[in-house]
Amino acid sequence: EVAAKLGAPVLRIYTAKKYYSGEERKKIFENIQWALSKCIPVAKKHGVILGIQNHNDFLRTSSECHELISSFNSPWLGLVLDTGNFIAEDPYEEIKRAVPLAVNWQFKEKLLINNVQTPMDIDKLCNIIKSSNYHGTIPIETLGMKDPLNEVPIFFDKVKSSLLS
Q1: DSSP label at 138?
Q2: pLDDT of residue 145
Q3: Listed residue (148, 149, 150, 106) closest to 125, CA to CA
Q4: 116 exposed, middle or buried (CB, 10 Å; 0-12, 13-18, 19+)?
Q5: How far is CA 128 from the centre of its chain?
Q6: From CA 101, how far away is CA 80, in angstroms rounded?
Q7: Contact (Cβ atoms closer than 8 angstroms) between residue 11 and residue 49
Q8: What total of structural domains would you count in the chain?
Q9: In what order do the strands lie in the sheet with 140-141?
Q10: Is the dihedral of CA 153, 50, 135, 102 positive or negative?
Q11: How confident is the model at residue 160 (pLDDT cuts 50, 70, 90)?
C-alpha cells in the first residue's frame, strides 16, 4: 500500500537471511510461499509488483529463483535480478536464465565467480540485457570504500555507453 502511494512500480523483498538445505529448506520454502500467497493479492490490489531479490541468501541460483517465482504464475511477482549474487562457476549463464523473471535489476560493478568477487564484464552483461525482452529500469550499484559521488557517475557512464552501443 505504501509503495503504491509513493508511486513505486516494484517493491523489492527478500526471502530469508541465509541459505538452508534439506528438510529445513523445504520448510522455509513453504513458509515463503505462504507469505507470498498473502502478499500477492495485496500487491495486485494496489498495482505494485513484488520483486524478490536473489541476495546470496535463500536464492543463490537461477533455478531456485524459477522454482519459487514459477510456483505462483503471477504477473505480480518477479525477480529483482541481482547481478552480483548468483553463486556459480558462470554467473553470466545464471543471469541469462533468470532474465525472463526480471521485473527490476541490481546491476553491480562486481559479481561472484566461484564465490570470489570479480569485476563485472559490463559489455557482456549489457549484451545479455539487450538480447532479452526486458523493458524496465536498470538500477546500478557500486560497493566498497570509494567515494560514491565519484564512482557512481563513472560506473553509470560505462553502463550507459555499453547499453547504447
Answers
A1: -
A2: 82
A3: 106
A4: exposed
A5: 14
A6: 8
A7: yes
A8: 1
A9: 10-13, 49-53, 77-82, 102-108, 140-141
A10: positive
A11: very high
Mean pLDDT score across all residues of the chain:
95
Burial of 102 (0-12, 13-18, 19+ CB in 10 A): buried
Asked if 13 and 50 count as a contact pair (C-beta separation under 8 A), the reply is yes
| Rounded Cα gap, residues 56 and 129, in angstroms | 21
Are residues 112 and 75 in contact, defined by beta-carbon separation less than 8 angstroms? no
Residue identified by cell 531456485 is 64
Which pLDDT score is estimated for 112? Answer: 86
Q: What CATH number should be reported for the domain holding residue 59?
A: 3.20.20.150
User: Scanning the structure block, which residue is given the C-alpha cell 503471477?
Assistant: 74
Residue 111 has φ and ψ, to the nearest 5°, of -140, 175
**Cα-based distances in Å from 107 to 24, 41, 102, 127, 156:** 31, 29, 12, 13, 10
Q: What is the pLDDT of residue 114?
A: 84
Domain ranges, residue 64: 2-164
